[in-house]
Each structure stands twice: as C-alpha cells, then as structure tokens.
Design brief:
The chain is an all-alpha fold. The chain is built from 3 helices and no strands. The longest helix has 19 residues. The radius of gyration is 17 Å and the shape is flat. The protein starts with 13 loop residues before the first helix and ends with a helix.
Length: 57
Amino acid sequence: MRVAPVGGTAVQDHVALAEIELCGDLIIAASAARERLSMESIDEVLRVAEERERERG
C-alpha cells in the first residue's frame, strides 16, 4: 500500500471540488423539498442562470 507523503504535496482539482460542492447543494435542496425538484429548481440550485450571464459578458 502506498501512502501519500506528509507535507505540502497535495494536489487540488478545482473542477472536481466545484462539482462536489454542487452535488452537495443538490442533496441539501432535495432533502429539504417536500416533492421532487423541478428542472427550474435544479437550475436555481446549480446557479445556471448566473453562469449563462457570466458567459455572455
């Protein structure tokens, strides 16, 4: 078994961390909802509109 060395050698994958955070947000929203989340609710949780605005400029 290999063990990662101790010290500042950790590699961070920022894309993976962002995806994990979004999945967590979805899990929290789904657990708080009384019914199944609509597509609009999912887009709101994932901040889809904000991302589209950012892409437009």
